[in-house]
Amino acid sequence: xxxxxxxxxxxxxxxxxxxPAVIGLADLAGIAVFALSGALVAARMRQxxxxxxxxxxxxxxxxxxxxxxLIGAPVFWVHDRWVALVCLGMAVLCWLTPxxxxxxxxxxxxxxxxxxxxxxxxTTKALAYGIPPVPAFMMGVITGCVGGVIRDxxxxxxxxxxxxxxxxxxxxxxxxxxxxxxxxxxxxxxxxAVSALAxxxxxxxxxxxxxxxxxxxxxxxxxxxERLPPPPDPLL
Length: 236
Hints:
Elements: H1 21-44, H2 49-71, H3 81-96, H4 106-128, H5 133-155, H6 168-183, H7 188-209, H8 221-227
């Protein structure tokens, strides 16, 4: 029997890797934008402040929570006092401000920035926990999109993944570039910046020129359109 026990092959998942401060700031910025979009869904449904807070929280932390559970990390917002405060603050802000402030495409453009940053954050955190590049790419997509999916399901709205517009694809582009760049050991600062900007650029192009992915069976588009529900108001 050896006197010295063998060293572990990997760190326990409970030990959180050190991530740069800029990643934390990007995380909070993305959470704030997504939380605001959740609160606005409740506002358009003429709900109470409590409901707006609930929608803000599930939208802001939904994707990151699923990511952390999948990679075996401590759920980020449970151990960070600022995340819940940011989500609740966005709900209160939405409650106190006139509805006309949030009309038009302003929120869509802000969300496009948050989408790219959040997808990069999710990918970077997964890689820091030893997740291989391809699953880490999927974690980036989940981080950017699942909060909106949960929000839409709770609200009884058609989900963002059921719309042909380039939204999930933009998150996938940012996550793929981030995962590939770090796998190639390129300078992380440049990888994060280029990946987030690429995701934002694709989403911005989709907003500006109404870009969408072709639907299955293009020749039957009219028949499918008769059976599918109309798209919701463009919150994301």
